[in-house]
Specification:
This protein has a domain of 42 residues. 17% of the residues lie in helices and 23% in strands. It contains two helices and five strands; from the N terminus they run H-E-E-E-E-H-E. The N and C termini lie far apart (44 Å).
């Protein structure tokens, strides 16, 4: 009998044409009202946006929270614009 892999939820894969950015490169796009997603976040329902001059993070529960960035968030180079 051949062994099979159990199903694992797939990671969000952006289209190949979408550029991957550092946080400083993404800031101008956020200021234009675009949404920012970090590839490390496996669910595309996680994204960052600007609201009332504050960065907010939308989570899969449908709610938005103030985004408290870590040093790693600032140094990451795996952001895409949704």
């Amino acid at each position: 009998m051949e062994a099979t892999q159990s199903p694992v939820p797939g990671k969000f894969e952006p289209p190949e044409a979408v550029p991957v950015l550092t946080f400083p490169e993404a800031v101008p796009e956020i200021l234009k009202g675009k949404k920012l997603h970090k590839l490390e976040w496996e669910d595309e329902k996680y994204f960052v946006f600007l609201e009332d001059n504050r960065l907010k993070i939308h989570k899969p529960d449908g709610k938005a929270y103030e985004w408290i960035m870590s040093k790693e968030d600032l140094a990451s180079d795996d952001y895409i614009i949704l």
